[in-house]
Amino acid sequence: MQKLIKNLQLIDNDGWLEVASAEEFEQSAQPLVPFKLLDELGSDLLATKDYGILFEVSDDYEALIAAISTQPLVVFEFEKFADGRPFTFARELREYHQYKGDIRASGDFMPDQAAFLYRCGFSSLQCRTEQDAQTALAVKDIVSVNYQADMEQAEPLFRRR
Amino acid sequence: MYVYDSYDQQIVDQRVVQFKEQTERYLAGQLAAEEFLPLRLQNGLYVQRHAPMLRIAVPYGLMTATQLRKTADVSRRFDKGYVHFTTRQNIQMNWPALEDVPEILAELASVQMHAIQTSGNCIRNTTTDQFAGVVPDEVEDPRPWCEIIRQWSTLHPEFAFLPRKFKIAVNASQSEDRAAIRFHDIGLQMVKNDQDEVGFKVYVGGGLGRTPLAGQEINSFLAKQDLITYLESILRVYNVHGRRDNKYKARIKILVKAMGVDKFSALVDKEWQQIRQGSNQLTDAEIARVKTFFTGIHYETLADQTEALATQRFESAAFDKWMARNVDAHKQPGYAAVTLSLKRVGYPPGDATAEQLELMADLAEQYSQGELRVSHQQNIIFSDVKQSELFALWQTLDANGLAEPTVGTLNDVICCPGGDYCALANAKSIPVAESIQEHFSDLDYLFDLGDLDLNISGCMNACGHHHIGHIGVLGVDKKGEEFYQVSLGGDSGVGAQVGKILGPSFSAEEMPTVIQKIIDVYIAAREPEEPFISVVNRLGLAPFKERVYAKAN
């Protein structure tokens, strides 16, 4: 099942695996750590390898900012497609905190949200199904001109027209 | 009138393609109904009681005759040949087929119209004073600012899935507020500071619905180049902190109230300091570019026609009444702003047939330079009529049922479509409006009552703005029967206040008598020339309650 869109390509996965304990973290080459588990693992263990952070909308965003440094991946898990908080979270991570790693959307988001996700700084999409992933790629560029400054276009249209 | 360049046109055209693709996927069963829902709502498409309802955007209420003709054409080809003008200056069609909507949108796009963000949990149409640009006492024309906000908010990637809908209104008059800015999520009042610079006083957290609240000031002077970055900061705080667990507590007004305006304001400032100097800071070039579109009306050097009009008014009592209620002052000598009433007794308030739309388009070209506006009182405005042509215009309007001389009176009812059309409504609103209009059909009597806002909503969603009518009427459902709750003292203007409920509700049949009793108390108590709202403020509800609920002998 190819349902991950990364670098605008459809792939099976890129190796990140969600872990549920310190033991699993130690065994995994590319552990994806739920945000709530970070404290339990502790900074010594976390310092031993690169890891990604899996953030749910109900987690503490301020604490995420404090925890972010050079992690290569942050995954925002959509609880419901109608809950648009991750759009602002991703945007602030890029804009205020100069986060350069991969920001991934996961969970219950719609392929029709792909364009807005990219514009807000998401860089990979873990879609619900392969069909969703194909739809996301097919529809994301239908609207190709935008008024606002965003993460794909640093200047708003009024500075370019 | 803002005119699209190739970018604006491309955005609207591509949005049509996008919605067509989404509709096709839905009809093919490839897009679940619950996922199509937010997508269609963001294009103004509701599924309603009898059929889908399509809400078409009229940015800040301004239209051209060409756009009005296209609206008439679309309503005839795809609907039942009439439309409804809403309290947010938009247009609704109540009977389009879902399959036809992409084609309707393509037709609208051909005249620079669209339905983008007229519904859904996103930033809606920005509204303003229907007399913007011609008001003698305005700080400056607010419409370029509405257009700047329109562009910023259109397909904004971050704010398409907010906790709830979000409405912005701008006012520039220094003495009146015809845009009800204190009852919007964000209200912007244009002001001048000590250095004579123009900026905005910012109110946040106003709204109607289940918890009516007047907005609170969070910035006494926002410099104009900071408008977009500041709006973006407010929206960011709302998107992250607004409640999402209960749709009735999800509007920004609940957040501001719960958090306190000081804490909310501090959070906004914290965001703002980080983006204030960013690329979204407005440039003088852009402000100047947008402003050029609103100076296209060419005024001749004319003198006021005071004497000629006085003679015409003396000779025709009907023209005199119309002049008194439906014609407003203009900043330009020799011109006037005319309100075409869509409140004829026996017709749903705010409705117009395709034939009326086409007639209004013709008259707008003949008398008002081809532009017209929609007011939040659901009437149509010709903003630039020569005083010397008022009499001729009146004759044509009168012959076509568009000159009811009742603007601003009790019979200029603001009314939602109600239970006759709307799936959300608890009760019908149009028949109640009609029965009251019929009861108060004596024009001299109406004139004597003076300015009086009667607002009727068919449910708590308050599309008829019942909370801010001097007299407000709310339809409620009691065990399957329709009843009407009356409130007094609401004010949408600078006195911004929410009306207070009079007491137990009434049946539809009782309503005209109830309103009559309220009016009787007013007439008995008023000082010479004292308006209704002032008497309610002075006396409180007690004498009104006493009369309305008095036991019959």
Q: What key attributes describe this structure?
A:
heterodimer, A: 161 residues, alpha/beta, TIM Barrel, 6 helices, 30% helix, B: 553 residues, alpha+beta, Sulfite Reductase Hemoprotein, domain 2, Sulfite Reductase Hemoprotein, domain 1, 4 domains, five-stranded antiparallel β-sheet, 20 strands, DUF934 domain-containing protein (chain A), UCP030820 (chain A), metal ion binding (chain B), heme (chain B)
Give a quick account of the main beta sheet of chain B: strands, pairing sense, barrel closure.
Answer: 5 strands, antiparallel
**Could you name the ranges of chain A where pLDDT drops below 50 across 5 or more consecutive residues?**
none
Query: How many DSSP helices of chain B?
Result: 18
CATH architecture of the largest domain in chain B: 2-Layer Sandwich
Give the full name of the CATH homologous superfamily of the largest domain in chain B. Sulfite Reductase Hemoprotein, domain 1
**What ranges of chain B have pLDDT less than 50 throughout 5 or more consecutive residues?**
none
Radius of gyration of chain B, whole Å? 23 Å
Share of residues in helices of chain B: 25-40%
- Within the largest sheet of chain B, what's the order of strands? 1-2-5-4-13
Rounded radius of gyration of chain A (Å):
16 Å
